[in-house]
Amino acid sequence: MVISIGCDHSALELKNEVINHLKGRGFEVIDEGTFTKESCDYTDFGYKVAKDVQSKKADKGIVICYTGIGMSIIANKVKGIRCALVGSKDAAQLTREHNDTNVLALSAKYTGYALAKEIVDVWLDTDFSNNERHLRRINKITKYEEME
């Protein structure tokens, strides 16, 4: 599985921790940056990750900024992306089972290294439930997206 990952300057250390963790698990990683602590716009990196997932260059994406909010917003602007900001293992499981998310947003401020890695593991290891009600809701999201 190929994972695209990106962050802003505030999340560089967490991104690097997550990359090392992913590689340790055997995943191929596309690092879309940023690569320095120099102030930058999270939008540029979140968009690149979302486009990697949309184009199928990557199977899933992970975006990280100070709160995770901005990254989740920009990722969700890309057609076909379902990104969720997750702060717990339970939410990571539910967003995969219920929402079939393909991009995970994390907060560098509110999520420590250990918890971030646990969230990533649960998120990557949880399959979509294919439950009829969840499928129906995702289809509605896709339909609404087509209307824009």
Give structural notes.
This protein has a single domain (2-147), classed as Sugar-phosphate isomerase, RpiB/LacA/LacB (Ribose 5-phosphate Isomerase B, Chain: A). It is 49% helix and 16% strand. The protein contains six helices and five strands. It has a five-stranded parallel β-sheet, with helices on both faces. α4 links the parallel β4 and β5. α1 crosses α5 and α2 crosses α3 (69-75). The longest helix has 16 residues, at 132-147. The radius of gyration is 14 Å and the shape is globular. The N and C termini lie far apart (31 Å).
Unreliable stretches (pLDDT < 50, length at least 5) are none
Query: Number of DSSP helices?
Result: 6
Q: Under CATH, the topology is which? A: Ribose 5-phosphate Isomerase B, Chain: A
Instruction: Let me know the largest β-sheet.
Output: 5 strands, parallel
Q: What oligomeric state do these chains adopt? A: single chain
Give the CATH H-level superfamily. Sugar-phosphate isomerase, RpiB/LacA/LacB
Count of structural domains:
1
Q: Judging by the overall fold, what is the CATH architecture?
A: 3-Layer(aba) Sandwich
The arrangement of helices and strands along the chain is EHEHEHEHEHH
Q: Strand sequence of the main sheet, in spatial order? A: 2-1-3-5-4
* Strand composition percent: 15-25%
Classification by helices and strands: alpha/beta
Shape: globular
Q: How would you state the average pLDDT, rounded?
A: 97
Radius of gyration: 14 Å
